[in-house]
Amino acid sequence: RAQTDPVLQLEKINVSFDGFRALTDLSLQIGVGELRCIIGPNGAGKTTLMDVITGKTRPDNGRVVYDQDTDLTTLSPPEIARVGIGRKFQKPTVFEALTVFENLEIALKTDKSVWACLRAKLNGEQQDRIDDVLKLLRLGGSRQRTAGLLSHGQKQFLEIGMLLVQEPHLLLLDEPAAGMTDAETEYTAELFRSLAGKHSLMVVEHDMGFVETIADHVTVLHQGQVLAEGSLRQVQANEQVIEVYLGR
Ligand code: ADP
């Protein structure tokens, strides 16, 4: 399959809350294997956009086409997760009382209850998948550690790992580097660049330094619409973008 095929196409999406338009005729395409950053001021519609993709918010109209033939607006949030879309919210939400390994185990066996899941034995392939993710997220030394004792950055990595064991095609990440140390942010950038290609990533981010290190393609949202799209350099030179960010 060509690298340029879209993994996701949003077509003329409208979302309003009590008459307030959060997204207006929003159209957007993400290519297979692409690492896209979504930026824009507060209230621009970035969270609503993620909510529409994951089925948390139903658009008033428009289509969200995944992998060229699945209209996500007809699916429930769990069904959307199962087609291969993983989302990470800004705050890490891990099972604090369980070990790092158990957290990954539960994420991998999403179809079972927590306890049924911890009782069920992993097969060799699942074991390998968890080991690979532990190594990738640099959590190998912490596998038996209680997740609640991890640093904030390690919890963020663990949560990314919980998504990765499910082998999603498309990852949606909300400010993944928020609250991380410089070294952790640097590793997150390296990690995302290595995930792109195999996975498609959509990253909502405020930190322009981080955006600069990860994305070749940036979409600027403003008042529920796409204001500009292109390389970070291109959008930063765009007069309208400058106006929106500097309030001139
Ligand atoms: P961003 O993530 O870019 O900061 P949001 O998608 O959270 O923007 O919000 C876009 C706009 O929609 C904001 O003006 C916000 O107040 C409004 N909004 C978002 N969710 C709701 C809701 N559930 N009810 C009413 N207004 C909402």
From TrEMBL:
**Stored InterPro entries:** ABC_AA/LPS_Transport, ABC_transporter-like_ATP-bd, ABC_transptr_urea_ATP-bd_UrtD, BCA_ABC_TP_C, P-loop_NTPase
Residue ranges occupied by any ABC transporter domain in the UniProt entry: 8-248
A single GO CC term for this protein reads:
plasma membrane
Pfam families on file? ABC_tran, BCA_ABC_TP_C
Named from the GO MF annotations, one term is:
ATP binding
Q: Which UniProt keywords apply?
A: ATP-binding, Nucleotide-binding, Transport
Q: Which residues form the signal peptide?
A: none
Name of the protein: Urea ABC transporter ATP-binding protein UrtD
Q: Which organism is it from?
A: Pantoea coffeiphila
* Biological classification of the source: Bacteria, Pseudomonadati, Pseudomonadota, Gammaproteobacteria, Enterobacterales
Question: Which gene is transcribed and translated to give this protein?
Answer: urtD
